[in-house]
Amino acid sequence: MLQQIIIHTPLWVWAMLAFLVYRGWAASADRETPLFKVALVPLLLLALSLHGLYAQSHADALALTAAALMALGSGFLSWTAAGRGGIAPHPAHGTVWLRGSWLPLLMMISVFAVKYTVAVLQAMHSGHARGAVFTLAVSLLYGLFMGLPVGRLLRIVHLYRQAQSPAAQAAA
Fold first, then answer.
1. Other CB atoms within 10 A of residue 127 CB
2. CB count in 10 Å sphere of residue 101
3. Cα(67)–Cα(136) distance, rounded to whole angstroms?
4. Which of the residues 42, 46, 96, 105 could staple to 153 if both were Cys, CB 3.0 to 4.6 A apart?
5. What's the pTM?
6. What backbone torsions phi and psi does residue 165 show, to the nearest 5 degrees?
7. What is the rounded CA–CA span in Å between residue 37 and residue 113?
């Protein structure tokens, strides 16, 4: 059965997995990167999570509320955990230095695994995959996957903008 699942998976899904693994692996090393590249993965994870959330919940109010609350909570935690450690904005160069972390790879693989698993379950056992408890659990996961990377991205943008301020430039 697993072989049939893999065979019937579209090729673009495997290409996306390869891209996510590549980006996650690259994020494990210390690097200086343009701000727009910092935003690439969080926005991709946001899009994948929103797509998965909509496909699973079909605008169910409870599921969307649960996902939104989880996204806000995990985004806030991510904002505070990001702090200043491991982030050094360089607005003069248009770049940000980031300490390497395996967390982005873990997040990307987790989003992919949840989306893939949900799609397989919907194709094989659509009744079980549409249950209220399953939908709520998946919605909470998607909320987590939206909040964590977006919270960190917002923190990085905040630090970058702070470094651009006239007071920060005068101190440098």
1. 7
2. 16
3. 8
4. 42
5. 0.83
6. -60, 150
7. 23
User: Is the torsion defined by CA of 165, 167, 169, 172 positive or negative?
Assistant: negative
pLDDT in tens, 72-121: 999 999 999 877 678 899 999 999 999 998 988 998 999 899 989 988 88
Edge-to-edge strand ranges of the sheet holding 95-98: 31-34, 95-98, 87-90
| Phi and psi at residue 33, to the nearest 5° | -140, 155
Q: For residue 142, what are the CA distances in angstroms to 7, 97, 169, 172?
A: 26, 28, 39, 41
Structure tokens at 69: 């609350």
Reading the block at residue 159, the tokens are: 């630090």
Length of the chain as a residue count = 172
Pull the structure tokens for residue 172.
């440098």
Cα 74 to the chain's mean position, in Å? 11
| DSSP structure string for 78-139 | HHHHH-STTEEEETTTTEEEE---SHHHHHHHHHHHHHHHHHHHHHH-HHHHTSHHHHHHHH
